[in-house]
Hints:
With about 240 residues, this protein is an alpha/beta fold. Helices cover about 30% and strands about 20% of the residues. The protein is built from 6 helices and 12 strands. The strands form 3 sheets. It has a 7-stranded parallel β-sheet with strand order 1-12-11-8-2-3-5, with helices on both faces. A hairpin with a 2-residue loop joins strand 6 (about 125) and strand 7 (about 130). The longest helix is centred in the N-terminal third of the chain and has 23 residues, at about 10-30. The chain is globular, with a radius of gyration of 16 Å. 6-phosphogluconic acid binds near residues 42 and 170. 6-phosphogluconic acid binds next to helix 2 and strand 4.
Amino acid sequence: MQTPTIFADTQALADAAAAQAIAVLGEAIAAHSRATWVLAGGSTPMQTYRRIAEAYLDKLDWSRITFIIGDERIAPLDSPDSNWQAVEQTLLRHIPSATFLRPLSDQPAELAAADYTQQLARLPQHAGLPRFDLVWLGVGEDGHTLSLFPDHPSSQPTNQLVIPVHDAPKPPADRISLSLHALSGTQQTTILAAGAGKAAILQAAFAPDSTLPIAEAALRTNAQWLLDTAAAAMLY
Ligand code: 6PG
């Protein structure tokens, strides 16, 4: 597991994550001419999207970026439950020149997962999988990431890229999610977590034998951890 980078507060974390995202995506565009960024929902990424919208819109050729989302709740497209809607309001509406692959999240989870799998096939591929140049992951207080929940069918190994999720322990119950298998083609994964509510689960995730979804995702992708001091309080 990588040693986490710890910031004094959420604003410092958001500033660093924004700068890092722009740098990683810029390098990917230089290398491949296009880049794919897998977005995360949740309040910590949202603060960073705001920071990018404030300070970095002129730092990248956004027409070369494709945005996808790592997981989505099944809900009407304009619902406050929609992860996409939240990211749209904070970041995506500022960059209409980008390409967006949005899940059919107003449809049943099986249909939305199958459709999103087909949408991902349009992305540049690497070793038979979509090449994700940057993946952002959040951490739930139960150790979930994406919509892969601990001790739940969603965290069983699979060869599918996108899975339907039912009976999620965190509402809403129906969702779709990238699988861990889908992350195997990832170039850079960054985990963002802030606040005292994350301290205990991060301590569990950093235990050597942890099988929490966030721990498995971190190990599989050699992820970089960006934490604030409150979230990191039980690590050392
Ligand atoms: C969801 C949320 C969820 C979130 C984590 C971390 O779909 O229910 O997006 O997975 O990412 O709970 O959220 P915070 O960054 O707000 O702590």
